[in-house]
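Q: What would this chain look like folded?
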Amino acid sequence: MTTQLDCQATALATVSIDPEQAAELAVGFKALADPNRITLLTLIAAEQKGEACVCDLTEPLGLGQPTVSHHLKVLVDAGFLSREKRGTWSYYSLVPGALPELFHAMTERTDQ
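A: My prediction, written as structure tokens:
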């Protein structure tokens, strides 16, 4: 019984994460926890120009512009999208490597 407890304690020690790192990871995962945001990332990634205007993202989602803008802001704040303002419209593009970085940050702690 002692060996099993020792193994569990060792595993917990090697996978530990400090509260600040956990909070950073949680922001990213929370941003991805909404189906509309996943759809937005997919739509933007599929754009041939590598970017999409908020005005082009409302119809595919069936949501109003303020709601889509809110979801896009959450994705920008989480570091998955970048935003460029042109006149009255905002254009969004994926931040290269942001999604793989999030998953790598999580799995590097659990693959040990």
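The CA atoms of residues 48 and 93 lie 11 Å apart.
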